[in-house]
Specification:
about 375 residues, alpha+beta, Beta-lactamase, 7-stranded antiparallel beta sheet, 11 helices, disordered N terminus
């Protein structure tokens, strides 16, 4: 199965949970800042409480980082990066991030727009020559905001096709769920098509262009798949590896999995908490995106979805952006959330959903711990 968005299915409940968590994180930010700390809030007590919470999650395997104003509020590494060898997870372990990858695809599209090589208002058919008549009205903006009307689709469900054949087949055979621009339907296919557009316009492979124009300018040395020299990668865990072995797929690393399990545009990238913290910091500068592009990047459309982000306004007026990745077929659950005004960033990356672990639900549990630490629980 391909990656699914954390905010589909029970999207309303999960969005409400994330609102509560981000409000709490923003409040805690004011309590843990060196300029605002008081004897009541005790940052060490909060760290111990959060540490005890993650210690208590049976089977949790992953990393957690919560920071504000450039200062780490909490960081933890748990479980095994490789269950076969017992190699532990460390703060430097790289994880498959799933649909968090979409924001990097969106950033690459905006970089090409800054270069004058495309516009988000361009029709998809201006860049791909196999768009059928009924989909001629789809624009890059529609793809970026999941308003193209295209249903969801996964390459690994069509393993007999190569990448372009899969995209051509899906465009030709799938009926639109709505006319472009009318409704929101989350679809990985939207971002897979954008991945191919990036290659056609830039003349470079997807990851190569992102590495040169997004990752390196932002200082991200451990984000990507084939290009970075990863020393510490979180492997797939049983029962995933057992299921794949039964299918004749002998692979434990997300770097080495078959081509049809490597979505290009909608998922498939690996990263570390350190790199995602750097990305958060660089999104406040012109290192990759201009002021105009950053506004477009985080401006919500239908269902509060922007370009690779879900956007919300918190009760205190701060704007928060977040996205997750979840795939129960391979045991991945991740979340990356930012409160812009309060300069808070929350990252949870996991290579196991043992015991039903879900990063967004875990964020909600952290909310209660934060509020209790502030005397409000």
């Amino acid at each position: 199965m391909g990656f699914s968005n954390t905010f589909t299915g029970s999207s309303i409940r999960k969005a409400q949970s994330m609102i509560k968590f981000l409000v709490a994180a923003a409040l805690v930010a004011t309590c843990t800042s060196p300029l605002r700390a008081g004897p009541r809030e005790g940052g060490e007590d909060l760290r111990q409480a959060l540490g005890a919470y993650f210690d208590s999650i049976e089977g949790f395997s992953g990393v957690v980082a919560i920071a504000t104003g450039g200062h780490m509020v909490f960081q933890g590494a748990y479980g095994e990066a490789d269950s076969q060898t017992g190699r532990p997870v460390t703060p430097d372990t790289a994880f498959l991030i799933g649909s968090i990858s979409k924001q990097f695809t969106a950033a690459a599209v905006l970089v090409l727009a800054q270069d004058g090589r495309l516009a988000v208002s361009d029709r998809l058919a201006e860049h791909l020559d196999f768009v059928p008549e009924d989909k001629q009205a789809i624009t890059l903006h529609h793809l970026l905001t999941h308003t193209s009307g295209m249903p969801d689709a996964y390459w690994d469900q069509h393993r007999d096709l190569d990448r372009q054949e899969f995209l051509e087949d899906r465009l030709e055979t799938l009926d639109l769920l709505s006319q472009p621009g009318e409704s929101f339907y989350y679809s990985n296919l939207n971002y897979d098509l954008l991945g191919l557009v990036i290659e056609r316009v830039s003349g470079e492979p997807y990851e190569q262009f992102l590495d040169r124009r997004v990752f390196k300018p932002a200082g991200l040395a451990h984000t990507g798949r084939a290009i970075p020299e990863f020393d510490d990668v979180a492997m797939y865990r049983d029962p995933v590896t057992s299921v794949w072995t039964e299918q004749g797929i002998d692979v434990a690393s997300p770097i080495d999995r078959p081509e049809y399990f490597q979505p290009i545009g909608s998922g498939g990238l690996l990263s570390t908490t350190a790199d995602l913290l750097r990305w958060h910091a660089q999104l406040k500068t012109d290192a990759v995106l201009s002021d105009e592009s950053r506004v477009a990047f985080q401006t919500p459309g239908l269902e509060d979805y922007a370009y690779g982000w879900r956007v919300m306004t918190l009760p205190n007026g701060d704007r928060a952006v977040h996205h997750g990745g979840f795939d129960d077929s391979i045991g991945v659950s991740t979340v990356f959330a930012r409160v812009i005004g309060a300069d808070v960033v929350v990252i949870i990356l996991s290579n196991s959903i043992e015991g039903g672990f879900n990063a967004s639900q875990s964020a909600l549990e952290c909310y209660g711990i934060m509020m209790e630490a502030m005397g409000g629980g």
